[in-house]
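Fold it.
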Amino acid sequence: MSFASLGLSDPIVRAVTERGYTIPTPIQRQAIPAVLAGGDLLAGAQTGTGKTAGFALPILHRLSTTKPLTGGRAPIRALILTPTRELAAQIEESVREYGKYLKLNSMVIFGGVGIQPQIQQLRNRVDILVATPGRLLDHAGQRTVDLSRVEVLVLDEADRMLDMGFIHDIKRVLALLPRQRQNLLFSATSSDEIRALADSLLNRPALIEVARRNAPADAVTHQVHLVDRERKRELLAHLIRENRWQQVLVFTRTKHGANRLSEQLTRGGIPSLAIHGNKSQSARTHALAEFKNGALPVLVATDIAARGLDIVDLPHVVNFELPNVPEDYVHRIGRTGRAGATGVAVSLVCIDEHKLLADIEKVIKRSLPREVEPGFEPDPRIKAEPIPNGRNRGPLPGRPVQGRNTAPVRSEPGRSSIPRSQTPSWHGSAHPHASTDRGNLRRPA
């Protein structure tokens, strides 16, 4: 099957072919015809499956072969919402590449950079807008963006947006859009919250699920190295040097931990930079660019980078610390083994993290092989210590269990609970009358 056989126009097929893509991935084979048909779509696809092209290509085809629904000033016709700046930038770059032979303009807006240049660019024609929710609402508040004639809405990484507390921002954005539009919702994982969002947003959607829910990419080899907590950095440096790793994405739980590890590796002769929410956008962009082009061998990241980093043929991902939320393991290692390439996911696990490792194995429904690097044998005398906000202990007396989010959830007046029976699985049919609400933990633009 070719891209042309999916009904895409010649200019789009030409641009895709020039990027080296000739055979559509499974998500593309299913999503492109569904989007071209004009109906809503609920798609469950793990990271690295090519889902950006799954919605970008048919949107480009639709906008290039039809005229805006009303006359007047050229409107924003497609809106793509994403949780992170990096993902927004990469999606817009893909849209530009795929649409290079079309007379369509795209733009990306996100926080962390000056708003005035964005305001200036929004005065020009913008057919496709890619945005993070926070900065988009900043523009809406200043009346510098008009979303009243959007024809297609895409919520990409919808599960991540909910985890980051964007539900209220999403609802505010929806209120700015016309009622008649096509809605496309993409999520790597399924949950009650995602199904409830789908209920309230989608109208009789086509349902697509590529790969088992919460399943890591089949092309990824998993390695678990048992090691004492105080020797993790030493073991990481040893593995990088001994195996001559040239490009390694390393995940930590905290921003402080990412900074400290990056500085320690650099002092030890392994150039490294950290990327997380407290870094300026220019610093994050610089670090990512250096890592992508091979000038920087090690990039240390928090989970803000677990979604959206698209690095061609990234060979190694290292969990320096296991994530508190087991599903985030899937998102982290999804940076490698993408679109048919192979990769290795290495986890450095100390005695504190054995419960987290067991939780991950339950989610991915497989056991991960343990090994011990000679010279780094764990000391059996060391006892497990609690992990802040971790899952290796029960709730403290008098404290409620927060569920998936480790930050406290803000109470909302009139917040309603949706019985599970009202929400469909990926294979059920969505009902447009349910609603959901979650605490707005934070709003990183």
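The longest helix spans residues 51-65.
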